Predict the 3D structure of the following.
Amino acid sequence: MVKRLCCCGWLVFSSCLLLAALVSSKHHGNPANDLVDIINNNRTAHKLSKLNDSPGLGCIALQYAEFCKGNCSRNGTIKCAPSEDDFTEVFAPNCGVELPTIGTITGQIVSCHSKYLEPSLAFQHVLVGDNKALSILRNRSHNEVGVGMVGVHKGPFFWSLLFSSGKTNSTFVLENRGTGIQQKKGCYSGSSIPCSAGRKITADSVTFNHVVITGFLCVHLVQQLQLNLL
Ligand SMILES: *[C@@H]1O[C@H](CO)[C@@H](O)[C@H](O)[C@H]1NC(C)=O
Ligand SMILES: *[C@@H]1O[C@H](CO)[C@@H](O)[C@H](O)[C@H]1NC(C)=O
Ligand SMILES: *[C@@H]1O[C@H](CO)[C@@H](O)[C@H](O)[C@H]1NC(C)=O
Ligand SMILES: *[C@@H]1O[C@H](CO)[C@@H](O)[C@H](O)[C@H]1NC(C)=O
Ligand SMILES: *[C@@H]1O[C@H](CO)[C@@H](O)[C@H](O)[C@H]1NC(C)=O
């Protein structure tokens, strides 16, 4: 009897571990990439072309958001206009974008909110809340898009959308065979680095946390099961 219970316990325990592994593997999103999908769905619903997701432009958008951090007004507007030199002398080098490949920026939207919002809410309420932003989104000159986002600790959150007429994969080329320079803060689109609410999450720590937590829950469950049965 005891032996059968034990066996049953181990079965529950190991299925729990399997579940833990599955749960953790589902957690590798990047909200900047979700925003690119939302932008493209909105454009294609209005019979406009889908934009190419450029990691180089995404990283520059992150620099833009970082540059504009500060002075977030209550209505989400930011007074911030980086110069062309900021793009070529600061943003691009910070990302490791090869200078001769910098393309023409055909549109830019930068906004902020008192806190982080999910991508669809940020799109509707913060980024594309007025007709001016909507006309930028629906401009036919764009070929590619980059999204950057970064938050201030316990402060407002910043989003930046950049559009370019650049030709797919010959503009905003990242050095180091497309990896560029690793960013310490924020998220950007086109990147394979998992990111949550503007913070990098190291895959290892997330997986570890999930496994540990689920593991503890499972042990508890198994103990309950045995207590009830004995
Ligand atoms: C914030 O606003 C102040 C006053 O208008 C200005 O001096 C400062 O440069 C602004 N900061 C940024 C990052 O735009
Ligand atoms: C947003 O707020 C700023 C400063 O508080 C103001 O100058 C601007 O006119 C406002 N914009 C809109 C669209 O309400
Ligand atoms: C589209 O963007 C281009 C480049 O920024 C600009 O010259 C043009 O006026 C925009 N078109 C519309 C309809 O806003
Ligand atoms: C596209 O986005 C605008 C602004 O948020 C919204 O008003 C419109 O309904 C969206 N269109 C579709 C098809 O989702
Ligand atoms: C774009 O990238 C793809 C895949 O890396 C490559 O096959 C293609 O030749 C590139 N196109 C241009 C115009 O460089």
About this structure: The chain has one domain: 31-203.
